[in-house]
Amino acid sequence: MTTLSTARRLLGLIDRERIVLPLVIGLGVLGALLESVGLYLFVPLVQGLSGAPIRLPFPAVNAWIAGFPPDMRVGLFAGLIVVCIVAKNVLAYLCAVLWFSAQSQVVHKVQTRIFEQLVRSGADYAADSARATRISAIASESWKLGDATVAVFRTIVAVITCVIFAGLLFVISWRLTLLALAAMAIAAAILFAITRTAQKVGEDSLAALNTFGKHAWESFNALRTIRAFGRESYEIERLRRHSEDVRRGAMRQEMLWALPWRFGEVSATLIVAALILTVGRDPQGLALFVAFLAVLYRMQAPLREALSARVQMNGLQPVAAQVFSIMDETARPVLVSGSRAFAGMKDGIRLENVRFRYAEGEAEVLRGLTLDIPAGKTTAIVGPSGAGKSTLIDLLARFRDPTDGVVRVDGVDLREFDLAQWRAHMSIMSQDVFLFDASVRDNVLYGDATADDDALSHAARIARADAFIEALPEGWNTRVGDRGGRLSGGQRQRIALARAVVRNPDLFLLDEATNALDAETERAFQAALAEFSRGRTLVVVAHRLATIEAADQIVMMEAGVVIESGSFADLIGKRGRFWRLYEAQRLATAAE
Hints:
The chain has 3 domains: about 5-325, ABC transporter type 1, transmembrane domain (ABC transporter transmembrane region fold, Up-down Bundle); about 340-425 and about 505-520 and about 535-590, P-loop containing nucleotide triphosphate hydrolases (Rossmann fold), CATH 3.40.50.300; about 430-505, 3-Layer(aba) Sandwich (Rossmann fold). It is about 65% helix and about 10% strand. It contains 21 helices and 10 strands. The strands form 2 sheets. A 6-stranded mixed β-sheet has the order 6-7-8-3-9-10, sandwiched between helices. A 4-stranded antiparallel β-sheet has the order 2-1-4-5, covered by helices on one side.
């Protein structure tokens, strides 16, 4: 990605870009013209102060000045200079307001678009993406893109100002201008040579920041493991090293970005000193030479601005490339919602020759899976690890779409239905229950924000959660902590079940939701589930085979295909793969 393409993408994120960009350019031109006029007015001002006749290379201006009494001319020029400088600064302020408005828009759009991309995309998108990188893009890198947007505008205005100042210098003295511009070109070439490593420094800094974020994220999620193995000092030292790498990278970037200002001022001073030594050979008078020096010295600021912004843009190239790759929907496909209305399931779900792989070139997780799931019945999915059970649940929830084949609901391709309406008729629970750091009430209401207190109480009773909720310090208003950390595993599962119940779904998906529960809690959970699932379509991925004896249909999967299916009695009677797995579990349980 080049600097120009980065600038174009950044400008494309600004609201009313076709108005904002010309407006910034227009304000930059007007501001530069006003400042040029103000600086050029020093010529007649110095001539008037020295008592010399005022002679400018503009006859009309000379005639206009001649209309004023000599004793008023100095005051006139001083007043005009003040007006020009005040007007120029007003325009510069308006220009800055536009810059920072554009900056905030870019930050806002990047943050919301990446978050929306993560929330609305398929589960495979989230799986392929490092969480720490995405969080860093939202919280940190988005602001760097905002800085890059300001750098684009700074460059535009600085270049405009330099061009107008150069034109003014030619008006004053073309000989001195050629000499000054040649010296400036040499200085700029030297500076570019010094700062050409800016992009490499930016890449190293970004890599260090990503490593730091990844380690911090992993550590936050592994605190129990770190403490259990006594690795606190090791992890702290690792984080300290990563933080030091980030600090050094940021320091090198700031040093490079600051260099144009310091180098520019020194080189401009040397150029002015060299011109002063040539003043005796310049045919222009003292007043013109003073004005020339004033314009030339003032020109160093926009020149430094342009050079500094270029170095900054080079350093931010890796950040821009990473953030834009996250935002690129062609590389990270978003699930497309269908337009067909979905009011509820009548007949059931059929998977026809479904295949799925997580990435191109990887082995297929599902290999031509064909399966019928009747409506209003309980279907249990069993099999060894890696059989594709959880992937099947993701396809039913439409967290993913099949690589090949089709999932039909009542004979219609699932992808044709409105995605929000499909999920509105569905609830899902997994072994890893996620509760928000909010009240019990808020967590249950997450299933249906419109539910009233009666619906909440009913859901809690079905989930066998009402008793322990009432016993909590603040009852329904008790905060459950990060990921429900203030509750036991069984309590979290029952709140999650209440959240699913209050949603009143047609389709209920359970992905090994009881694996982490003790026997007593699991029995209570199963009783609650049996009451709730009457007349609903229930798909259960089960690890403990004894818990699915009452299922209407049991599907045995292995290596991404169905190898057996039928009722519990049928499969036990066949004495096949399911029977052997069931017997192994039964004997293991009896031996405990």
